[in-house]
Specification:
76% helix; globular; 19 helices; 2 domains; 493 residues; two-stranded antiparallel ribbon
């Protein structure tokens, strides 16, 4: 039955789609293939999620070799959640992509853009689903190389520099990761993550294993843009094509966070991470530095995409704060923020991409009064911006509520105050843009602007509506995140 092969299809379908796109010279045909593939992904991901919820983790052996000797795709509640996130974002943004890519990418490169996008999608889904440490490295490189190419396709020449900066940082991160995997392999004799977790018991405090943990933590932190290893992210998001920025901001760093959670909780285990090492204290300090430092820098940006990029660094701080709090409620807040931040940041970058489509600029001064010319787009920006702040009734509030409650349960009342204070800073930079687009006279660049075509507008409004809907109905988001947090903290091997 085809349902038995859903884990393989989750990766094979976008990979084959990329091969097909590579044979096209016309961008519209490549877009159609990418659209069909992207729309299929959520059905596979939700199918896997339902199977996990009803039957427990899924083990899928490739090549006829049973694990731990062969490569295993292993699906549990945590990575099923991530697979749904990446798949849904890919499906929603593809209708938006056609007009945006036609506007920003040269005609002879559009088919290659969709080819590279599908490779990136394949790599991200592969990282999330594989149960093999080295296979995760392979998929990490597939997604990273595709990401560098996506960023470099931006119109601004600075996109090439941004891609090169990311290439250097990404290569360092990948090198740290593979050194960590090598050390673990030398100590355990296996690359299967589940088998590695069993064999590491008893030697978890050895010097080689602790060195492996350090290398893996730094390498993955570079990929997820944890402060202060985030220097590649602002330029990458600011100068990449709008569609690439939307996709990467909503998915790439989230998959890296998942990989960190996978190693921390299911390979090394809760005891090693929190009882024997100062991981909680380190992540607490770095998360707070991200939440405040990146938010303050965002206040002074003149380019709205750069402002939102620094905001992403701050929001990653909220996600890792859940790891630092390290109780069920706090970890739930961090995991649910993977989903919630993807929704609101994709909506925000879609809105800015639509404005760029109409006026060719994302500088704040050029956006003056554009709300009067593009009311639907500007309205979507406001709603998603309110969610970024954490206003009650939005997904951003749900995340911060769980984080605050988790901090309070730890007795860290001061951390609750810092979460609220950091949200106040986001009011400043979001409010600054809202004031410009709604309450100033229309700038010359915006006088002929109007809302984008429906193919761009509807996906943006759908994600914006989702930031409100999931602010009230949290069964799918916070509910599953809570199950994942409980599973991780139980020390499941």
């Amino acid at each position: 039955m085809i349902s038995e092969h859903l884990p393989a299809l989750q990766v094979v379908v976008p990979l084959l789609g990329a091969v097909v796109c590579a044979f096209f010279t016309r961008g519209d045909r490549a877009w159609f293939v990418a659209l069909v593939v992207s729309l299929a992904m959520p059905f596979i991901a939700f199918g896997l999620l339902l199977k996990v919820l009803h039957g427990g983790p899924i083990s899928y052996a490739l090549g006829g070799w049973a694990p731990p000797f062969g490569i295993e795709y292993r699906v549990d509640i945590l990575n099923a959640y991530v697979l749904v996130l990446v798949s849904v974002i890919g499906a929603v943004i593809m209708p938006y992509a056609k007009r945006s890519v036609e506007h920003e990418i040269e005609a002879d490169k559009q088919a290659w853009f969709y080819t590279i996008y599908l490779l990136c999608l394949c790599g991200l889904l592969g990282i999330a689903i594989t149960g093999d440490a080295f296979n995760a490295f392979v998929f990490m490189e597939v997604s990273s190389l595709a990401t560098y190419a996506l960023i470099a396709m931006g119109r601004d020449r600075r996109a090439l520099l941004a891609a090169y900066q990311y290439l250097i940082m990404g290569t360092i991160g990948a090198t740290f990761y593979v050194i960590g995997v090598g050390l673990l392999y030398s100590m355990t004799g296996t690359l299967n993550l589940a088998d590695m977790a069993n064999r590491i018991a008893g030697i978890e405090n050895s010097r080689a294993v602790l060195a492996a943990l350090a290398f893996l933590t730094v390498g993955i932190s570079l990929k997820l843009a944890l402060f202060p290893l985030h220097v590649w992210l602002p330029n990458a998001y600011a100068y990449a094509p709008s569609m690439a920025t939307v996709f990467l901001s909503a998915t790439a760093t989230k998959v890296a966070v998942y990989l960190l959670l996978r190693y921390f909780f299911t390979v090394f285990g809760v005891t090693v991470i929190y009882a024997d090492l100062p991981i909680s204290e380190i992540f607490l300090l770095l998360s707070l530095a991200a939440m405040f430092g990146a938010s303050i820098v965002a206040v002074f940006q003149q380019n709205v995409k750069r402002m939102l990029a620094y905001s992403s660094v701050a929001q990653i701080g909220y996600i890792t704060l859940g790891i630092a709090i390290a109780n069920k409620t706090g970890l739930t807040g961090g995991i649910v923020h993977l989903f919630n931040h993807a929704l609101m940041k994709a909506a925000l970058f879609m809105a800015i991409g639509a404005i760029f489509y109409r006026i060719g600029s994302v500088k704040i001064d050029d956006l003056a009064g554009i709300g009067k010319r593009m009311p639907m787009t500007a309205g979507a920006f406001v709603v998603a911006g309110l969610s970024l702040i954490g206003v009650p009734g939005t997904v951003g509030f749900i995340s911060k509520w769980y984080l605050g409650l988790g901090a309070f349960q730890q007795g860290w009342w001061w951390l609750v105050m810092l979460i609220v204070l950091s949200s106040v800073i986001s009011i400043i930079y979001v409010g600054r843009v809202v004031e410009v687009i709604w309450f100033r006279d229309v700038a010359p660049a915006s006088r002929r602007a109007k809302d984008p075509p429906l193919s761009m507008l509807l996906p943006m409004l759908l994600l914006t509506a989702a930031t409100i809907y999931f602010g009230f109905d949290t069964v799918l988001t916070a509910g599953i995140a809570e199950l994942a947090a409980e599973w991780l903290l139980a020390g499941v091997r």
